[in-house]
Description:
- Four copies of one chain form a homotetramer.
- Chain A is mostly helical.
- Chain A has a domain at 67-198: Tetracycline Repressor, domain 2, CATH 1.10.357.
- Chain A is built from nine helices and no strands.
- Chains in contact: A-B, C-D.
- Chain B binds a DNA duplex through α3.
Amino acid sequence: MATDGRTRRNGAGRRDLTEIAINCFARHGYQGTSIDRIAREAGVTKGAIYHHFRSKEDLLAAAVRDRIGEFETRVQNACRDAAPDESLRRIAEVCAEHARSEDRPRFAIKLMVESIETNAPVLEEMRGMMRRFRAFLRNIVRAGQDSGLLRSDADADAVAAAYTSAVIGAETQFYLDPKRFSLEHTLETFVSQMLDNLRPAGAAQTLQGRSDP
Amino acid sequence: MATDGRTRRNGAGRRDLTEIAINCFARHGYQGTSIDRIAREAGVTKGAIYHHFRSKEDLLAAAVRDRIGEFETRVQNACRDAAPDESLRRIAEVCAEHARSEDRPRFAIKLMVESIETNAPVLEEMRGMMRRFRAFLRNIVRAGQDSGLLRSDADADAVAAAYTSAVIGAETQFYLDPKRFSLEHTLETFVSQMLDNLRPAGAAQTLQGRSDP
Amino acid sequence: MATDGRTRRNGAGRRDLTEIAINCFARHGYQGTSIDRIAREAGVTKGAIYHHFRSKEDLLAAAVRDRIGEFETRVQNACRDAAPDESLRRIAEVCAEHARSEDRPRFAIKLMVESIETNAPVLEEMRGMMRRFRAFLRNIVRAGQDSGLLRSDADADAVAAAYTSAVIGAETQFYLDPKRFSLEHTLETFVSQMLDNLRPAGAAQTLQGRSDP
Amino acid sequence: MATDGRTRRNGAGRRDLTEIAINCFARHGYQGTSIDRIAREAGVTKGAIYHHFRSKEDLLAAAVRDRIGEFETRVQNACRDAAPDESLRRIAEVCAEHARSEDRPRFAIKLMVESIETNAPVLEEMRGMMRRFRAFLRNIVRAGQDSGLLRSDADADAVAAAYTSAVIGAETQFYLDPKRFSLEHTLETFVSQMLDNLRPAGAAQTLQGRSDP
DNA sequence: TATGAATGAGCGTTCATTCAT
DNA sequence: TATGAATGAACGCTCATTCAT
């Protein structure tokens, strides 16, 4: 009985292991996480992990892939049936929620940065995620431009790159200094600034950017 | 009596060691850098390092403090005798240059992110640097507002936070994907967008975002 | 399925390790014994030891506890069904045998002395052993006094303390100078002297102290 | 000015170094004492120590020799112009005082035991001290026997060995458990017991051995 | 499918010792 | 006579990985 994916107590399946692993990796980094710790937290022995994964790197790669897919699905869903400018607002919200969530956060920032110059396969995976994220944003901007909603003389690639930068940088600062860094407010400020700037010449200018005086 | 800075045997003084150490730490992270590696790269034995520093953490702290001071000096110098808007452009340039330089780059991003949840003292140091950076930017924005150069209804704190985010995020993406991420262009796009948005109501709008195909 | 106690590969179970460890500790002291040496002597690698024990201190504690228990059992058994004066003779014999045995000797003296001012938990363990040993002796003396076999105006506590002193001091001298220090003869001399002195007023005095030239 | 042996602050002479060294060795043992620690406590650098002593072992040997000489002088002085039985009482007192003193204590016990099976030269030194101590005691006993003060059928060697045992064992227990082990009382009990036993046949028996009921 | 004993390489750190000054 | 930089060997410990069961 009770075979709903995660069985009780013992015997965590392949899937459960990636769940637990990515949490450890996200918290303590790849090098800071021992197979032993993952095993302990999963309630299994090291051997069990090596039964499912060929190596620590393999486990990390599998876990990262899982998370990336999940994150991308979430972003795409947030944009379903939304106008381009609305999509750009929603994506920022999803990213902020992700950063604040209990279990998922930090993994992209921590493992992405840690893999620079140290772990080519994961780096490639992360690079792909970032490229797809920027392409996704760029397509939204282009769609907005095609429909006349956004200024057509803006460089959609650069806008997407700046947007991605703001998200990554805001998340990083938030993890670094959660008490003093206002994640949502920063992202809202950025997005409003950007949308304001992308408004076609004739459109009226919104008043934004002043708050908690 | 051999006083060319690095005295005796084949030595590498305290200072040289922090230089070499921070390069290693920035490249491979704190956990990914062994004392042996630093020693090898400095041409000394592990013992020599422990003669100058009490522990690996001590070495890291000394190296990080050095680098932070250097970076902050550099940013401040770039703003000497510059108008607020010009300062905001120059800071982005300095950050881009820093990210592209041979020896100094990556240290902030890598160690900042790695220290989250794992190394409280370094975290504190980095937090301090980020807070000072944001405060520095905010003061520039406020100076611009006071002089009428920038819109006075903008939230200077949020603008500074967004600016910092853009810088960190752009640097991160650049390290991750130097071939495909256009660091300078992204930062220019961001800064122009921001300055455009901060222009007082009456001022003319510049053309920005010239797409490079 | 190979269940001869020490299973698999070339192993040495937890128990064997404490046996080997205490021998090393007793010979070279705690600080003078490296984990590597224990491993080598046990025919395993360091890692195997750390699989069974959390630390060198943990291994020491386990080994010391084992030995203390063994020693106390041995002393108690020697006194089964013996009159108080006979018990006091037998305990000295057991201690002398213990000091001469191949594997067990020295551990108490070496580790007890080494732990003074340097290793609180082991000190505590040893202190406990000594207190129990003195209490055991005192109870024997009291039993002798209650039965009229020994002078009742003697201070049982002080007698027990002096007895323990003689045993420890004789053992120490024996280890220091086995060729020139006559362990059994010294202890016999002491015990006879003591029993002579504890003889009730009316009883005849034995001739003791026959000098062996 | 001020060259009274130990100069102010810096520049501890050879003699001062052995003083400081033996204190360290007595407290933390030989292996537990680093040259660095001695240097720090003496207010000099390691190099200065190596200027005076060829090695750590050499320093230990010198320090031990100093202390042994001092101790033996002290014991001999205590016996000047005293009858044999009185001498035997006084020696126990000197040993107890020595064990309680601030600076000198523990060195014999700790270093003697630690050197067993690990440090042949020091072991030899300690062996010599013990042999001389026993010989000194034996001669006192013999003198007592020759003068008719003590029973002449007692084995003077064995008596001396038992006496030495009691002293060493009492000291050890005292260091191990100063709160619960009564050093002076134990030694007094032992000596009284022994002297009582050594009294010639005709002499009256003293009442000893009952105290703090 | 999972366990647990074991390995072997490596890491941070300590320390006696050397030596140019 | 003394310093302080440096060495090199060891040590306690960790950890990814292997493998018999």
